[in-house]
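Protocol step 4 of 6: structure prediction from sequence.
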Amino acid sequence: MTAVSLEQKSAAARTEQPMWTRPEFEAQIRAVGPERYHDLHPFHHMLHGGKLNKGQVQAWALNRYCYQAAVPRKDAALVSRTHDRDLRREWLHRIHDHDGLPPEEPGGIERWLILTDGLGLDREYVISRRGALAATIFAVESYVTFVREQPLTVAVASSLTELFAPKIHKERISGMLENYDFIDDKVMAYFKRRLTQAPRDSEFALNYVLDHAKSRDEQEACVDAVRFKCNVLWVQLDALYNAYVAGNIPPGAFRPEA
């Protein structure tokens, strides 16, 4: 996965083009989801359609924890870069959403650990990431690096896969509750909370990007950032499919009990 960069676009390759209008720019961003979001991935369809066994669902939850744990770190990286106090104030709640504000708000990471607890995984083992696929670690760390290093508006744009998230969360809630007898309502709490959090977050981020991209090149880089984030999510499912459906589990990775 190659991170996009305004600086990496050579002057020779650029052609002067007019900026997209605001509706055109938004349409370009939204068009990424139907083409690239990971709800199209075969592993996603197997997960929600009840086609996986418990060990395969455990592998998904364990590896997905690595992504959940990386989200507040990438958000903290973004907050540390901006002099815009309004942006910092707004973005800080994302960290609280994931890390929590005990005792009233346990946070998304804790809710994810309730899911892995419910699947019978040892919590310390999950948190350690020892059993995670190397591809998972590489993917999530590339996302943290992207947000830390890319121009600020482009970094914000990378979060806009949240525009497409409510649909996939609804599918997970209904599909997994219906198809797996080892899944109950309690362990699906993470996804239910994201049904309200994701639209709120994406609305702010979308308006920020639409307001702050000041050239066609910057607009295109923002759309590329959404594609990049879709790649981060997609490659994690590629790795899970290869390891736990095709049977190519790499050394050191989690191995479900027979």
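Step 5 (inspection) to follow. Residues 216-245 form the longest helix (30 residues).
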